[in-house]
Amino acid sequence: MRKLLECKNNTFFVTGGAGFIGSEVTKQISNSGGNVIVYDNFSSGKKTYLKNIPNVKIINGDLKNKSLLSKSMKNCQYVINLAAYPFIPDSYHYPQEFFDVNTNGSLNVILEAKNQKKIKNFVHISTSEVYGTSKINPMNEDHPTLPHSTYAVSKLAADRAIFTIHKEHDFPAVIIRPFNSYGPKITQPYIIPEIILQFLQGNKILKLGNIESSRDFTFVSDTARGIITSLFVDKAIGETINLGSGKTYKIKDIVNIASSILNTKVSIKMDKKRIRPFDVNLLICDNKKAQKLLSWKPEVSFREGLEQTIMWAKENPINFKNAFDGFVSKSNGKKKKRTVKQYESNKAQTNFRRN
Fold first, then answer.
1. What is the rounded average pLDDT for all residues in the chain?
2. C-alpha dist (Å) from residue 128 to 64, 140, 276
3. Which of 164, 167, 343, 348 is found 20 to 30 A from 335 (Cα to Cα)?
4. What is the pLDDT of residue 4?
5. Which CATH code of 3.90.170.10, 3.40.50.720, 3.20.170.40, 1.10.3720.10 fits the domain covering 5-185+217-246+279-300?
6. 159 near 126, Cβ under 8 Å?
């Protein structure tokens, strides 16, 4: 793995550091000689994803706990804010919770970081979902922001808050917008994990949603490398930077590639429960800004990354429960909305299960 020499002997505060992207960021920083304080409430992150990574301190914390945030980042030089509720269908049922965490929680993190005297840079992780369906191909950072989900709106609101805090207080901050990341250490029933799971369950008919939608996929190690690199580039401060491959794949194309890797023939059946009410049809990244400012470009091909992800899933069996039913329970025959604590428990223990 490429070592980021700037990490050595520095301490990094990473919210969501036990999650899918966060655990890879943590690993790369550690492998490059840095120390990491992982701040995570484990609503979807896994402590097992941090196993055997040296120079890591784990704090079980919530973004709403301002005093613990302040205390936890006291001796850090850099902050990476990855913590979020990330699964779009959940946001249909828990809009308030998504704003509490994704927007207000992110505001708490940067305000506490601003009050520290040793923070050299702050990187906030956004999402390509804030753009909505592509109007201009490929999509650069000036593309209109027309979010199609409550999740995306909560993330865009956070982006604007981070940017204005940067401007109003002259506090160094960078906004990174990854397009769809994929790879091992799965935490959510995103489309690639869902496809792999159905293959590994031996299904000959895959139940999927909008198979004509197209996404730009970047392997998680490339995404993490771009995030970390942005901390050490002065010209990136105050900028919003896309991370993506510049290539798109339709969902049905992913099925065909996975079928080739696994040497298994399948057919596809549309599952209406998986059709999003206001779906994004096309995302394709213009990564020229990342190339120019960060000297970054993806190194792992889509097929190679998919092979690695499938291999990991074979060795780490996963099972998603009720991933597309809105996480509701029934009481006396009626649907009953769960509380946020029940929601987090469901995400951490029920939706993802190590067999």
1. 90
2. 25, 10, 17
3. 348
4. 81
5. 3.40.50.720
6. yes
Closest-CA residue to 191 (of 43, 320, 85): 320
* Phi then psi dihedrals of residue 183, to 5 deg: 150, -170
Measured between alpha carbons, how far is 262 from 277 in angstroms, rounded to an integer?
Answer: 32
Task: Name residue 121's amino acid.
Answer: N
The three-state secondary structure class of 313 is helix
Q: How many residues does the chain have?
A: 355
Helix (H, G, I), strand (E, B) or coil at 243: strand
**267 token code pair:** 């057919």
Q: Is the pLDDT of residue 320 over 90?
A: no
Using a pLDDT cut of 90, give the percent of the chain over it: 81
Which residue spans within 193-296 are E strands per DSSP? 205-208, 214-215, 217-219, 240-243, 249-250, 267-270
d(CA 241, CA 227): 10
